[in-house]
Amino acid sequence: MKAWLRLRLRLLAAIAALVVLFVAYVSIHPRGASTYVLTIWANQGTLLGFAAIAQFFAVLVRGVDLSVGSMIALTNVAASFLLVGAPVAIAAGVVAVLLLGLCCGLINGLFIVYGRIQPIIVTLATGSVYAGLALLLRPTPGGAINESLSDALTYDISGTPTSILLLAGALLLVAIPLRRTPLGLGMYAIGSAEASAYMTGVRVNAIKLTAYATGGVFAALAGLYVSMVTLTGDAGVGPAYTLNSIAAVVLGGVSLNGGVGSPLGAAVGALILKTISSLMFFSGAPPLAQPFFEGLILAIAIGLGSLGVFRVRNKLDLFNR
Amino acid sequence: MSGSLVELSAVSKNYGGVPALTDVDFRCEAGMVHAVLGENGAGKSTLMKLLAGVIQPSRGALKVDGRIVSFASPRDAIREGIVCIFQELSLAPHLSAGDNIVLAAPRARFGLLTLDAYAKARAALDSVGARNIALGARIGDLSLAERQLVEIAKALVRKPRLLILDEATSALSKQLVEVVFGVVRELRRQGVAILFISHRMHEVDALADRISVFRNGRHVDTFTAGERNHNDIVTMMIGQSLKELFPPRGPAAPRGTPPRLAVNGLRWNGQLNGVDFEVGPGEIIGLGGLDGQGQQQAMHAVFGVLNGVSGSITMDDRPIEGVTPSRAKASSVGLALTPEDRKTEGLVLEMSILDNLRLAALGRAPFGIAGRQPEIDRRLGALIQRMALTYADLSDPVGSLSGGNQQKVVLAKWLALSPRCLLLMDPTRGIDVKTKAQIYRLLRDLAAEGLAIVLQSTDYEELVHLCDRVYVFYAGRVSRVLSGDDLSPGTLLAASMNMSQAAQAAS
Fold it and tell me: Tens of pLDDT along A93-137?
């Protein structure tokens, strides 16, 4: 039990931090813990949550994905063309958008796996391409999204925000495969020690490709959800999501060195980030000072997360973390 | 087909023109333990890597069950039932022991790993005597010996047809080695072919049915175990006889001189519970015992790697406090430590031999230009000569050297600082006989020149034959100090298992 807790300390601390921040947020919000406040908060959080899970899959296999934001922008723009018409057409549009995300992720993976190029460079380049493509398709924000679909996904189901249910559903969908299939364990093993995984007969290339492609699908989910919330396609939504998704996975206890963490952690990290910025918005701090305070809180949170360093009794252990 | 499971015919392997294996014919048969002997660089590891699918032969054919096969990756070899336990462990440090084992044999139903798979992992761990390792334990938190057991369990769950053990028990205590050997014998009874590489002759005696000797990339001979004696085998391997392995002991260091390094009441984190030992100039002392009794931590504590150590450490009666490795190596203290794991802690594998040799001395002139320390370079040159370091060019990456030569580089980089006390952590682990002999000779000579040497080792032979005094560790303290006639493999083993009273009563 003690060992179980110790391994999940980072995640539990992140959840505790989220609860504290959330309580602070609803207590200073002028409208309190109403369904309206909850829904707005959850919609924003879910957006970043999907982006963070997309980032998680790249980070899990010891990579990083700087194209998360661009994939969100591109899929968001694609959705603004495709999510109209009869229900069947809309369903086909959703599938097409998810496939687009899958392809983007797969392209990242192909360069990284077969080109043997560092993920940071590959995704910097492909990210530019995806963002450029989105701009070509929609130079100015516009387009239309089916409103009844948007209403169904951005309000609440008897008081519980629909977005939170979507996020929880996505998390459930990936949790078991990650921990209980050769594919998922393979991702953890590759992130932890790629050479060891190869020597064990793990299909390193195929699994890394799968990780990046899965990341693309989650970026597409985020892109779709942006469309649901904003009802338009906007090629400029990307940049903020990329860096925030990296901050979110770190806050959620996912190691940038790979092999450690969970999608739940990534999602919790995203909700923490979103809560911090909402908290700032309603705190009465001057708007221009908000980035300063947001950054400060983020820095403190990350600092707390690395307190474990002081408990290390053998200095050599520091280098293996 | 002649009943051989795996067969190599006329196989050669070159690395960029340098032959590693030349024209090798070799067969492994089912139900037989086949030991492969040879000094480092003889081609043993190349042979293993070929069989395990890590590398492909330059010429010649590899046959399994008489069929010609070619392995593109370890995965292909594993599919044919060829499972290799490498010396460098193949575990993922952030995953649990159970996940690591299950990953090796993902017999997934509907793509899911069943609880059954974890039950099998548990059974495999139990069978190699690792009942105390929890399935949920993170590999990174386990000791080297425990990781080796997990590695062995991981190989077992794959139901190998050919099991390759490459120094797979090098960090295990004697009892655990016996348990693992029991498992190997049971596999042999079930008809598994076993290839066994070890530098420990008594392990080969205990296990092997057939022995093959390799030298300079060629298969010298294969014979039935027991057909030749040790001296013949060693001569076949290196052309040097066994009794030359350990140099004669010099005259005992004059007592009464103050100890060079003295350690008193060392405590740390529940793993050191009041450790005392001392070493004088010209002495070689040994720290021995079963694995994980605090020997390694004692060495690390002296070199300043651990936080929160209490007790006193003195050099020439002067206490040294607040030590870090960079303070410990300063000429005012004069300590040097060669780490247990030379590949990660001893060397920077990608850097050149020369840069590695100069690395320890860099701190002596932190703002100078590297390579502008003629005194250090002169000493390094002399050390390279003295140790007979074998290399092509000093600008080659140090990782291209054989294990024995890598260890010589580690020793040389520290000796260039002219330390007054040398701490050695298992310096001959996984090193061939010839280099071992050279290192023993060097240590004896260094002691004769007045250096104080602390040797922590898992090899009983070298503790008995090389050391003037051995401190036997048990549960974080020194349970017995052996020297002179008391120092024999038997008393050392008894003391390691904390049976000193019984052993004394018996003698």
Answer: 999 999 999 999 999 999 999 999 999 999 999 999 999 999 999
In a domain, A83, yes or no: yes
Q: Is B137 on the interface with A (CB under 8 A)?
A: yes
All residues of chain B having their beta carbon less than 8 Å from the beta carbon of residue A201 are 73-75, 78, 104
Mutating which of A190, A196, A315, A320 best tests the B interface, going by the most B Cβ atoms within 10 A? A196
Q: What is the CATH number of domain B261-334+419-506?
A: 3.40.50.300
Reduced to 3 states, what is the DSSP secondary structure of residue B393? coil
The C-alpha angle with vertex A266 and arms to A265 and A272, in degrees rounded to 5, equals 85
Q: Is A5 on the interface with B (CB under 8 A)?
A: no
To test the contact with chain B by mutation, choose from A5, A316, A320 the residue with the greatest count of B C-beta atoms within 10 A, namely A316
Give the count of domains, chain A: 1
CB-nearest partner of B90 from A4, A181, A196: A196
* SS3 label, residue B117: helix
- Please provide the CATH number assigned to the domain covering B4-238: 3.40.50.300
Structure tokens at B348: 């920077």
We report the CATH number of the domain holding residue A298 as 1.10.3470
> What per-residue confidence (pLDDT) applies to A19?
95
CB pairs under 8 A between A and B: 100
Does B341 touch chain A if contact means CB atoms closer than 8 Å?
A: no
Of residues B117, B93, B148, the one with CA closest to residue A190: B93
Instruction: At B192, give phi and psi (nearest 5°).
Output: -80, 140
The verdict on residue A248 lying in a domain is yes
Contact list in A for residue B300 (CB cut-off 8 A) is 314, 316
Determine the average pLDDT of the residues in A177-185: 90
Residue A25 included in any domain: no
Query: For the segment B145-185, what is each residue's pLDDT rounded down to a tens digit?
Result: 899 999 999 999 999 999 999 888 877 888 888 999 999 99
Which residues in chain B touch residue A193, judged by CB atoms under 8 angstroms apart? Answer: 90-93
Asked if B143 has any chain A CB less than 8 Å from its own CB, the reply is no
Question: Between A181, A201, A260, which is nearest B94 by CB?
Answer: A260
Tell which of A8, A173, A192 to mutate to test the B interface (max B CBs under 10 Å). Answer: A192
Residues of chain B with CATH 3.40.50.300: 4-238, 261-334+419-506
Q: What angle (nearest 5°) sits at the alpha carbon of residue B187, between those of residues B185 and B193?
A: 100
Residue A203: give the domain boundaries: 34-306
pTM given for the model:
0.78
Q: Does residue A320 belong to the interface with chain B, where contact is any CB pair within 8 Å?
A: yes
Q: Are strands B4-15 and B18-29 parallel, antiparallel or unpaired?
A: antiparallel
- A3 and B93 within 8 Å at the Cβ level: the answer is no
